[in-house]
Amino acid sequence: MLMIGWGLTWTVNKTLLNHLPPVWAVVARLAPACVIYWLVCFASGRITVPVKADLPIIFSMGAFHMVGFSLLVSWGLQYLPAGRSVVLAYTTPLWVFPAAWLFLKEPFTFRKTLGMLCGMAGLLLIMQPGSMDWHDSHIVLGHGLILLAALSWAMSIVYGRAHVWKTPLFELVPWQLLFASVIQVIIALAIEGIPHVTWSLDLLLMIAYGSIVSTAFAYWAMNTVSRDLPASVTSMGLLGVPVVALFFASWVLGEPLDAALLGATALIVLGIGLGTIKLSGQRAA
Known about the structure:
- The protein is an all-alpha fold.
- The chain contains 12 helices and 2 strands.
- About 75% of the residues lie in helices and about 0% in strands.
- About 45% of the residues are buried.
């Protein structure tokens, strides 16, 4: 469910940029999701004040994932197609592997090394540095922003696994959303000012999808797996998202699926698979 929800999100977010500037596009997803989550918590009687020990996970998830990843991706989507962007963004597990080894002491095996090399080969294939127009600042900036977004998300995953949780997960998400929404509004006002918006049914539907499915539900699900599973296994669960996103980007936006993009996707997915799937005899566990 998370794979499909986040896969379609890339097409929705790319289209949303036709109606809103990039920072306000993120606010349009985060702020309604924040309100929805607080209403659900209030209705279920699960509003609590987080203890001091859980403040770091509120700030880290809010800053690195909800703000850092979302904002960098929204900026990057201005310059790159949705399909190429999602493949670059979902190199996140390749950055999780060494970080989990360094900070969480998760073993960095031969297969993980091989997986990283395979994934990096896919990264080089999609970027094609030899043929990239390095004089086009927009293309270079777009690639850099999406890769920085992947690094930001990787930091969030690793810290989510390392954190010792005190407050129930469900009751922390609204605080994370509130922190992220406030930061995003401040950034939007500082950089883009008050936007001029032409409201339409399409815009309202995109905001509804982005806030309910790809934000409120997805962040709760991502927090859950980050807390309960090893960081490398968490990243494995994200494998299907770029495949789903490529399908929707091609189908809805008409983006071409060229050989380089498909090959890069296959290499990155294979690399992540090599690094995360545990083998027992001839069968994958």
